[in-house]
Fold Methylmalonyl Co-A mutase-associated GTPase MeaB.
Amino acid sequence: MTSADLATRILNREPRAAARLMRLVDDGAPAAREVLARLSPHTGNAYILGVTGNPGSGKSTLVNRLIARLRALDQTVGCVAIDPTSPFSGGAILGDRVRMQEHAMDPGVFIRSVATRGNLGGISRSTPAMVQVLDAMGFDWIIVETVGVGQDEVDIVRLADTSVVVLVPGLGDDVQADKAGLMEIADIFALNKSDVAGHARLQREIRAMLALHRQARSDAESWFPQICPTRASEGEGVETLVETIFEHREWLEESAPLELRRRERAEHLIALIARTELHARLQHAAQTDLIKELATRLVDGQTNPYAAADQVLEAILKASS
């Protein structure tokens, strides 16, 4: 199958063609680049929803409920679910989609699980390309569920239009709630497992944190993050959460021109692709004789690690020119 044929099949919303390209993308196959280039002019129409939060907060169950609610509103949904990769075997269970089995036969839903492959930003390096594939297929919504993240793994904010941070009680004290990073990217807080002890306290802490941040901000027209209590296992609060997501979308469309948002996303995409390419070439360089030679010279005291790293970068740039 040629790249043109594969691109045409994806634009015709053929799931097998999309799955095939996503496999090529995730494997870093050079053949994927030409297909993605053909798809690029057909992207930019989907609304991207990022769902992130701590491990065990119920993100997958909540995403499953979000998909069901959006389908009830006659919206098509593509989903990329990120799972952690073993640092030892390199494998991943890819279990997020197990919680979404009820949508397996729905032609209006496409779910793809993908391993982080060691990426530390909460999403895999192939995630933006997979989002591009789903966008080209014409899905109304694309949900990106990150791997369980900490306080500074917030790459999702550069990819999503709306970012939902899922929190549950018992993961830290009020000092944790004030820390920068994950807490600052939220457009909406989904306080999940509302039946668990400590939920009311967590809600108070988040409201107090938001009040402090609001006083420190001079832009009165900016979006003020909303709090939505949920119990995803029972579907409680999901309808209100979806309504709040639509409210943020409406606010975003009124306050930021579409072209501006597309340009900002394009800037991040270009930078991400450049970093990914550089990382791949660095990994390749690590297997070359140059690295081994420089390591020997470093151990013998004939060079220093910074000069050695400069030589590696110079070799990569020379090979690329």
Observations:
- The CA atoms of residues 221 and 255 lie 9 Å apart.
